[in-house]
Design a protein that fits this description.
Blueprint (H helix, E strand, L loop, with lengths): L6 H27 L14 H21 L5 H13 L6 H17 L1
Length: 110
């Protein structure tokens, strides 16, 4: 099977070879000028917005955990039991919705 190479492909390959040779020569000159070897360096950083968002999330987590760890006083528990038994306990719908939405937001992050 014969494969013919178009002259344009040859010219592209030759220009690539010439560029590679000239790049190598240029690198040799640069290395010859300085006694240190030069290496590429990659620096990975977060942008300031990501850092700020992480700080806010950590602060909110700390606050929520501190609220969760506060024990409920026995008097409050007894009061709630009595109000439920009497039928006078009313659910604060707005507060309940806030708690549900907060819980859903935590589950979405997992």
């Amino acid at each position: 099977m014969d494969i013919s190479i178009d002259s344009s492909v040859d010219s592209i390959r030759n220009s690539y070879k010439n560029q590679t040779v000239s790049d190598a020569a240029e690198r040799k000159n640069l290395l010859g000028c300085s006694k240190e070897r030069q290496f590429d360096e990659v620096i990975i950083t977060s942008n300031s917005r990501q850092i700020e968002e992480k700080k806010i999330a950590e602060e909110l987590t700390r606050r929520v955990l501190s609220e969760v760890n506060i024990p409920t006083p026995e008097t409050k528990i007894e009061d709630l039991k009595q109000r439920v038994a009497e039928g006078s306990y009313q659910v604060d719908i707005d507060r309940l919705v806030d708690k549900i939405l907060l819980l859903r937001g935590e589950q979405a992050d997992e």
